[in-house]
Structures are given as structure tokens and as C-alpha cells.
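Hey all, quick one. A colleague (J.T.) asked me to put the uridine-5'-diphosphate-xylopyranose job into the tracker so the inputs and the C-alpha cells live in one place instead of scattered across chat threads. No bug as far as I know, just bookkeeping. Sequence used:
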Amino acid sequence: MRMTVIGTGYLGATHAACMAELGHEVLGVDVDEAKVEALKNGKVPFYEPGLPEVLERNIEAGRLSFTTSYAEAAAFGNVHFIGVGTPQQRGSYAADTRYVEAVIDDLVPQLEGDHLILGKSTVPVGTAGALQERADKLAKPGTTVEIAWNPEFLREGYAVKDTIEPDRIVIGHRAGDSRAEETAREVYATPLSNGTPFIVTDLQTAELVKVSANAFLATKISFINAVSEVCENVGADVTQLADAIGYDDRIGRKFLGAGLGFGGGCLPKDIRAFMARAGEVGADQALTFLREVDAINMRRRQRVVDLSREELGSLIGKRITVLGAAFKPNSDDVRDSPALAVAGQLSLAGAAVRVYDPQGMVNARKIIPDLDYAASLEDALRGAELTILATEWDEFKQMDPVWAGGLVEKQLLIDGRNVLPVADWQQAGWRIWGLGRSTHEVCSTLPTSPVYATSYRQ
Ligand code: UDX
């Protein structure tokens, strides 16, 4: 099949490359010339494991190309995916859908024949219907344009796998005449032949599936983080508690990783946009609990700053090393990153903050240029009076506590992700705090959580 993918950020670039990997002929479209130029040359403008290989392979095979021209996109094929961003609006909880609307405005007037536009971006419920009306007004006489919605569930860091082997495919289309299901069956023939669940529904349900999934994940994380606040006050261990409740199939251990909480380009803005839209459609009370989910999440960041102050006294002039800047490991994305938020707050409180992240440094520097960015983990640790593990990269999880102890000035560490083997670190002479694992010396008696090493996120 021939198809275009409009928007080449994390979502669009991955989708374009993976559709080509599935054997389709794909044209990626973006208004950003520098991004398109990089992609044409086989360079992914962000860090995503496995994606550069897929991109290069498919460019070389002649199945994948990129352009800034909507005219080219209109002539290329009859199926178009939208993968542009829907960030939070300034000064509001609502999502900003202007980029999605701009795609319709720029593409539709140039189309001829019968076209299907499949939205992948996360949008407030009702957006697809409004875009259909917009498209109907802009389409040339004799041209038909159908808008359907095909939400994307990929996780950064696992984007290639999640796109090629999704755990479900959802397609929402209008009532009556629609060719969306038939086309989606062709587009996703490979995953569907492997038994991937396929849910065909109306537009509103498809739009809501995505925000509901993210709201549930955010709620799960904030649930365990709320429990971790109680654990801290009574000397209980939230990681053992999560293991214990996670063995119940109905609960499950995934996304019960207590710590600094969630960030990134999706979960925080999606729960806010969901709340905003619920109010607009008259379900004001339905999602007010998401405010609490948001607040619990933000409190964890503050907790790490408070804990640092409790340990160091005044923060002014104290050398604090923050390990991590990306919002999660295997990503260079620093959007709403808990790690960077903590580093920024400590710096504002007067601490001399040094940050190290295996991939997120370039993006972090753009957001907070005046932090001290270390060249390596070793460089980051040297002379630290307090170390905070804020993003659970393997490089940090596998750090040798004896080696690290020889570099820092004070062997004091806050494990903001509860991923270090506490006993090993204590044996090496470290004083170590885990969020939700008590701030009194109880840590020293704790066995290592049996599943701490298996990632809770996958
Ligand atoms: C999320 C959804 O998982 C994905 O389906 C959707 O398409 C986009 O949004 P992503 O933003 O890539 O994906 O990150 P995810 O892996 O969900 O992690 C989100 C945040 O939650 C990270 O900051 C992570 O550190 C945090 N997290 C995750 C926890 O704090 N605890 C956990 O147990 C799991």
C-alpha cells in the first residue's frame, strides 16, 4: 500500500518507518525542514532504540522517503496518517488541537479522488467529528475525504516493537459508508495475521480509548505513590507491598513502580485534557479524581526536594548530583521530566546541581541551560554531597556502590525510583533513602525486593 504519515516526531517518524518495515510504501511529511532533511539522510532526530536501523533499512530499500510538501503528499497515495502533537494549551488544561487542524487545512484542499485520513494523535473526544466537518468544507468537488481514528499506544523506548507488534489495534469510524475498517485491515495485515486483537468502533470510543488508557496508567502510578506516602510515615516498604499486591492477577505488578512519578509528553497532559473535555461535555464530576492523581504525582517531586533539605540542612551551595534528566530510561525526552524538575527546584533553592543522563543532556540543556551538566557518570559523582537517582537507566542501576563511594564526598543517596539493591549499597557504606521505604533507619533491615530488578514498566 502507499500511504503518508504527517508529523515526524516520536510518533510519526516511528509509524512511518514501521509501516515501511511492514512492506508499505511510505512518505513522511513534516513542516520542519531540518527534521525532514535529517530523516532523509537516515538520521532519527531523537533517541529511540532500534529506530535508526529500521529507518535506514527502509530508505535504502526505497520504501520510505520524506518531504515538506503537502502537494507531494496529496499526490502520493490515498491513505494518510496524522501523527502531529496535541500539547497542553497555555494557561489551560485542554489539549491544543491546532496542529491537527492545520494538517486538514493544508492537505485536504490539495486532494483529488477518494482519500482516508487516519488520525493517530491523542485528541479530545469529538475532535474527529469536527475534523470531518472541516474536511468536508475544504474538499474539492468530486473528492471524498473520510476521517477515521486509529489511536497509537506506543511507549517511548519500545516504540518500534509497539508499532510492529501492537498489543491491540483500535479503529473508530463514522456510521454508514466507511472504508476505514477495510483499509485498516490491509494496512495492519501482518499484525492482524498474528492474532492481534482488532477493535472496530465509533469515532468517540476510539478517541476515548487512548485517553482512558493513559488516565488508568497514571492513576495506577499515583495510587502506589499515595500508598508510599503512608509507608514513609509508618516505616513500611512500598516496594515489598507492591510486589505483594502485584501477585494478584487482577492488580498486576506493572506500573506499580513507586518513586518520582510520571512525566513525559503524554501522561501528564493527557489526564489534564481528559478532565477538561469531561467538563465540556457535561460530565464535570466524572474525572475530578484525576486532579488528585496529578497532585499526588507532583508531590513526589517536592518530596525529594524536602528529603534533600532534611538530609543536608540548608541547600545553599550544597553539591547535589542528579542522575537522570530524561523522563524515563531509554529515551532522550525531557518533556515534563520528574528528574529535571527536581534538579531545577534544587538549583532554585541554591544548591550546586550537577546532572548526568546517558541520552537526555542535549534536550535538558535547552530547557534548563544553567545547570552543571557532567560529561560522564564518574564526572557527575565526583565530590557530590548528595546523589539522587532520578531516572532508572541501566547504567545507574548497575553502578558499583564501592566505586561510586570512592568518588563522592558524602555517601548519601536518594533512590528516587526504588531500583537499587539497598543492602549492597549499605554494605558499601552508603546511607540510602528510597521513596516510600521509610526515612528512618529501617532501610538497613530491609531485604532487597525480589522483583526490583525486573522492570516494572514493560
Ligand atoms: C505512555 C503510555 O504508556 C503509552 O501507551 C502511550 O502511547 C504514551 O504514553 P510513555 O510516555 O512513553 O508512554 O511512558 P511510560 O512508559 O508509560 O511511562 C510514563 C511515566 O511513568 C514515566 O515518567 C515513568 O518513569 C513513569 N512510571 C512508569 C512510574 O513512575 N512508575 C511505573 O511503574 C511506570
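Adding what we noticed when we looked at it: Confidence is low (pLDDT under 50) at residues 439-458. The pocket of uridine-5'-diphosphate-xylopyranose is lined by residues 152-156, 214, 217, 221, 255-257, 259, 261-264, 266-267, 327-328, 456-457 (CB under 6 Å).
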